[in-house]
Design goal:
The chain has helices at about 10-15, 30-40, 50-70, 90, 105-120, 140-145, 165-180, 195-210, 220-230, 245; strands spanning about 75-80, 100-105, 125-130, 155, 185-190, 230-235, 250-255. By secondary structure, it is an alpha/beta fold. The radius of gyration is 17 Å and the shape is globular. About 40% of the residues are buried.
């Protein structure tokens, strides 16, 4: 990200999501999520039919399903890392469930201004500003009220590709340090399935807006990375995951015995 500016890739994701069918829940306020997305997407065009649009549809559905199933199973704490303009804290708001959004200060400040202008209720959300490359993560999360003795769901969507490997490992370990036994982590990795031409187009595009891609992994590398940070990957089919999701770099993991 360019210093002093909000994430442009996060704005693009919000624009794409406006055209997706989202996982339904008997709680929450989808209209609040959509109001935020429309505000963020104003002036952006994200045509359907592109490979990126199709991928983001699958990715969004995966994280939606994990969130709803986890909340329905009794999870009462949700941590959204590099939250950007994600609106799940509104779409899936449920009495008794607390949300924690950790994001770069510049993007988070822009989001908070939009939320205030739109008049959206944020009483159930704690916002923690943090530059993943430089700032502590575990301690501010706990200081904001995350209960380290109660299972939580950690969401890390669409950010791993923009972090170098040491920083990504640090973030995963920091989340694990804050996670009680029984906690879950849903994460998206960029894995090397795309053609070289398509991958280069993506890398050129995000580099041009100051958000270069830094970590693209071989298909089997994410499992070892998660294990090294104390997360045990769930088998395909568990809690909504499957071979299709895994091949797209979408993984669900459980808190293990700690970083190795």
């Amino acid at each position: 990200m360019r210093k002093g500016t909000a994430s442009q890739t996060a704005r693009g994701v919000a624009a794409h999501r406006l055209s997706y069918d989202r996982a339904a829940a008997p709680y929450g306020d989808p209209r609040a999520d959509e109001a935020l997305a429309r505000d963020v997407a104003d002036g952006l065009e994200r045509p359907p039919g592109t490979p990126m649009h199709a991928y983001l549809r699958v990715r969004t559905a995966f994280f939606d399903q994990v969130a709803v199933r986890s909340i329905d199973a009794g999870i009462s704490q949700v941590v959204v890392g590099a939250a950007g303009y994600d609106g799940r804290a509104f779409r899936y708001a449920k009495p008794g469930v607390r949300w924690f959004e950790v994001d770069h200060p510049d993007t988070q400040a822009d989001k908070l201004e939009r939320l205030a202008r739109l008049g959206l209720n944020t009483g159930h959300v704690r916002f923690i500003p943090a530059d993943f490359g430089a700032d502590p993560i575990t301690e501010p999360l706990l200081a904001a009220g995350l209960d380290g003795e109660v299972p939580a769901l950690f969401l890390l969507e669409g950010v791993a590709v923009y972090l170098d490997l040491p920083t990504l490992t640090r973030v995963l370990r920091a989340f694990r340090a804050a996670a009680a036994e029984g906690s879950l982590l849903a994460i998206s990795f960029s894995v090397g399935h795309a053609s070289a031409e398509r991958r280069q187009r993506f890398q050129d595009r995000v580099a041009a807006i100051g958000e270069p891609a830094r970590t693209v992994l071989a298909a089997d590398a994410p499992l070892a990375l998660l294990a090294s940070a104390g997360w045990v990957p769930a088998p395909p089919g568990a809690d909504g995951g499957g071979e299709r999701q895994r091949s797209a770099g979408l993984l669900l993991a459980r808190a293990g015995h700690g970083p190795g």
